[in-house]
Amino acid sequence: MSSLEFRRMLASDAEEIAAIEEMTFAMPWSRKDFWAEAVNENAVYIVGTVDNKIAAYAGAWISFEEAQVTNVAVHPDYRGQGIGTKLFARLIEEVKTRGATAITLEVRPSNKAAIKLYENFGLRSVGRRKGYYLDNGEDALIMWNTDICSIKSSNESEDLTMSTNQTMEDYQKSIFFPIGQKNDAYAKYFKGQSYLAPVAGKEFPIFNVTFEPGCRNNWHIHHADKGGGQMLICVGGRGYYQEWGKDPIEMTAGTVITIPANAKHWHGAAPDSWFSHLAFEIPGENPSNEWLEPVTDEEYGKLK
Ligand SMILES: CC(C)(COP(=O)(O)OP(=O)(O)OC[C@H]1O[C@@H](n2cnc3c(N)ncnc32)[C@H](O)[C@@H]1OP(=O)(O)O)[C@@H](O)C(=O)NCCC(=O)NCCS
Hints:
Blueprint: E1 4-8, H1 14-24, H2 31-38, E2 43-50, E3 53-63, E4 66-74, H3 83-97, E5 102-107, H4 112-120, E6 124-129, E7 140-145, H5 168-174, E8 181-182, E9 190-191, E10 194-198, E11 207-211, E12 216-217, E13 220-223, E14 226-227, E15 230-243, E16 249-252, E17 256-259, E18 265-269, E19 275-281, E20 284-285, E21 288-291, H6 297-301
Parallel strand pairs: 4-5
Antiparallel strand pairs: 1-2, 2-3, 3-4, 5-7, 6-7, 8-10, 9-12, 10-11, 11-19, 13-21, 14-20, 15-16, 15-17, 15-18, 15-19
């Protein structure tokens, strides 16, 4: 088998995941459900890929110290090869980093493979929900592990860093606007590769700016005497916008940011995701741009 890689789920994965869901469950979640989950800040979703195709996915909702597992599935072609075990270990690592100390889920008593998998991670059945599954009236076993901090992940010796292996071509398929050309004219103000595509005419220029995973621009300021500033509308992937002295704001498709004139700020991709936003200048008096120092690896390294 080619190498298995894990990364966070992106909204653009929703269609591929929904296809596996359809093959797997009697009551499958839809593409729209996964699309919404990708931007749910109280949820954690990871995917396992083989040759850039999704082979497995899992997710959980985080509520204070509890992680409620919503989905765990391995593509039928890849079951019984240990992928489910690696996937669940990664999910546990992820929910731990989000502050969860306990994990719970429901499972059909007839689902021997899943029960074995969960028992291997210390989950135990603590009760039943009668007639929980509407398709056949089967009960659900309620399983818990209330101390996931003591779980020794089977992958502990491996690098647990999430990575993206999405190619630019695959990413382009997931967004409506073109990625365009390498943004060489401004390369000195960026770390990593960015791309630029004009999407509107000269009367009111709008650009689609795309950042490869890890790419960001330097701190900068859009000066203006009156009015001015810039609008960003995220159209794909995941990234951040941060104003000096404030917390970073995560951006996913549909996030709109109004950057005030004269505010020091930066924007760019998350470490594990491509990122695109439309950008246009808000009209103002005497506009000018001032490029400043790069965002340090230390500051950027705190982002997920
Ligand atoms: C449940 C599922 C995620 C497990 O993934 P997987 O990659 O096949 O699992 P693994 O190969 O890592 O095996 C996990 C454990 O289950 C056991 N197992 C796997 N298939 C099994 C089967 N058909 N019957 C009994 N045990 C089985 C394995 O032996 C292993 O235990 P071990 O390490 O003690 O030997 C996968 O079968 C799946 O996607 N099923 C359909 C979706 C589903 O039921 N999801 C769970 C909903 S609650």
